[in-house]
Structures are given as C-alpha cells and as structure tokens.
Amino acid sequence: MTRQEAIDKVLSLFSEGYACSQSILLAFGPAFQVDERSASLLSATFGGGMGRLREKCGAVTGSFMVMGLAYSPIDPKDMDNKLLAYRKVRELNKSLIEVYGTTSCGELLQKFATREAVEKRQHHQMICTKVLAETAGKLYDMLKEDGKI
After folding, report:
1. Alpha helices, DSSP H only, in 17-128?
2. N or C end of the chain: which has fewer CB within 10 A?
3. How far, in Å, are 12, 87, 89, 116 from residue 24 at the CA level?
4. How far apart are CA 116 and CA 126, in angstroms?
C-alpha cells in the first residue's frame, strides 16, 4: 500500500459512514493481521471524540490503536518497546498539534466549523476529512520509516 492508497482508503471508508477511528483502523489493520470485523468493532466507540464526548479526535485515537499494533510489546515487562510506543504516540500527536493547534475533536470543530454545520453534520467535509487525510499520511510515514509496513 502506498501513502496515497492509505489516505484514499481511509477517506473512502469515512465516506461510507465509518467513524474516523474506524476508518483509520480498518485501513491499516490488515497490515497487522487485524480482521475487518474486529477492527470495526474495537474502534467504533472512539468516533466523535470518543463516543461523541468531543475529546481526543477519532482519527488520532484510531492511529494510536494502529501504533499499538505496530510498536507495543507483547511482554508487559518489555519497557523499552512500551516506552517506544508511547514516544511514537506523543510524536504523532505533537505533529498534528503543529498543523491544527489541537487534537481535541471539540476544539477542532469549534476552530474549523460552525455549530450549525456540526448540527447538520457538514463538519465532515469542513474539517474531518482534512484531519483524517493528514493523520493517515503522517501515520503511514511513521510506519514506513520504521519498516512496520
């Protein structure tokens, strides 16, 4: 899968009605032997900033799930790889804050969409697809650079 294919897959899934978190995990999950059903179910409640709480953006939480698959150790005593995974999460989060000023769903919506647009679900085209594309691209780059995909 190329970078653009990953971005296109994420956006295609989102346009089908999957949440941001689902779109990311469904697109990247197969690279880590995660089946479609499991990916969809595991990430479903993270949409809307975690169950529409408008907390951490779903594109970001979906990416954190993928990073867990890519970087986290199976052995709970493997602190080196556990800390590597945490470092990668912080790195991705920081890079998105540099672009958007936040990774909070609610803050992104306030910054880039009107309340009326959110009520009419127009925010998907106003901001969500941009954040999804940016996040998928950055996630792909990190995974590719580290030989994970």
Report:
1. 20-28, 36-43, 47-50, 58-71, 79-100, 105-112, 115-119, 123
2. N
3. 11, 20, 15, 27
4. 12
Q: State the Cα torsion 98-103-107-110 to the nearest 10°.
A: 70
The half-sphere exposure of 121 on its side-chain side, counting CA atoms within 13 A, is: 5
Distances (CA, A) of 140 to 53, 67, 77, 92, 119: 27, 10, 28, 11, 32
Tokens 């970087």 locate to: 71
Q: 112 with 134: CB under 8 angstroms?
A: no
Q: What is the pTM of this model?
A: 0.93
Which residue from 93, 96, 71 is spatially nearest to 81, judged by alpha carbons?
Answer: 71
Q: For 82-94, how does the pLDDT look when each residue is reduced to its tens digit (9 = 90+)? A: 999 999 999 999 9
Average pLDDT of the chain is: 93
Q: Which helix (H) or strand (E) is 5 found in, with range?
A: helix 3-16
Separation of alpha carbons 116 and 66, rounded Å = 33
Side chain identity, residue 44: A
